[in-house]
Amino acid sequence: MSDDTIIGILDRKAIEHDAGRVSANAIWARRLGALSIPVAAIAILLHRFGQVGTPTLLGSIALASIIALAAVAAAAATLVTVWRHGWKGMGDAAVGVAFAAVVLAMPAWFAVAYFEKPMINDITTDPLNPPAMPAAHAQRPPMSNPVHYNDALIAVQRLAYPQIVPLRAALAPEDVYPIVLDLVDDQDWQVLDARAPAEGVPGSIEAVARSLLFSFADDIAIRIGIDGDGSVIDMRSRSRFGRHDLGANAERIDAFLTELATRLSIPAD
Question: Which of 9, 36, 40, 208 could be bridged to 68 by S-S, CB 3.0 to 4.6 A?
């Protein structure tokens, strides 16, 4: 056997061995993608059960997103090595991307809502005299937003959410109050304080609403006052954390007052 033949056999074996090699990037793509899910999931569960605060949750989601992006980058690097050297690993890379996509769906949704909705975190039907939040102020955690209303939000709200206005009913405040309280209970909101209207003093209800998935807390204040022979119902919803509510507060008030109008038999405009 000639030297050229031996060299050719060795070269062929080297090529075959190289072609069977699994890209290290593919392995890291799968590992990082798999890691990103428990980082996010554990933080969400701990937040839902009150074991960590919202800032910790947001930081954990950011960390999980960075890990997921690293998995996507490793998968892209895998594609390059597979294309150039014929190495294996696209299956692992695809699994890593699939895991990463689950985690990255959260910040992607946040980003869409962030740019679609205005930068606002406090919505009320009465910007000139918003319902007060003394109970919320007394039990708000550190680093949360203050409960005082920022007048700079008035113009932003009126432009973005012109439908957020007081609800007026023909019933007296004393008759409206229990209906409002029942609706609050049906929403599974945590009631912080509830005071029935009496002797011309408006009724008030303060509660905490939590989002379905992340359990983000928003404070709510409802005021039931006198309006001639009937009542006027004002509502306020304020995010505890962050400058942007992603539209949640306006949606909450709109849905609540729409259902309340139905229960009070108020005809739609």
Answer: 36
* Relative orientation angle of helices 248-263 and 173-186, to the nearest 10 degrees: 120
List of residues 6+ apart from 181 with CB closer than 8 A: 194, 205
Distance CA 253, CA 251 (A): 6
**pLDDT value at 26 more than 70:** yes
Domain boundary among 71, 90, 116: 116
- Maximum alpha-carbon separation in the chain: 112
pTM: 0.80
* Higher pLDDT among residues 267 and 206, named by residue: 206
Phi, psi of 62 (to 5 degrees): -65, -45
Report long-range pairs for 128-131 (Cβ below 8 Å, ≥24 apart): 128/154, 129/234, 130/221, 130/234, 130/236, 131/204, 131/221, 131/222, 131/223, 131/234, 131/235, 131/236
Q: Which tokens belong to 135?
A: 């109970």
**H helices within the chain, ranges in order?**
3-19, 24-48, 54-85, 90-116, 134-139, 153-160, 173-186, 248-263
Distance of CA 103 to the CA centre of its chain: 13
Q: What was the pLDDT predicted at 212?
A: 84
Q: Which CATH number belongs to the domain containing residue 245 in this structure?
A: 3.30.310.80
Answer yes or no: is 268 within a domain.
Answer: no
CA–CA dist 125, 138 (Å, integer): 23
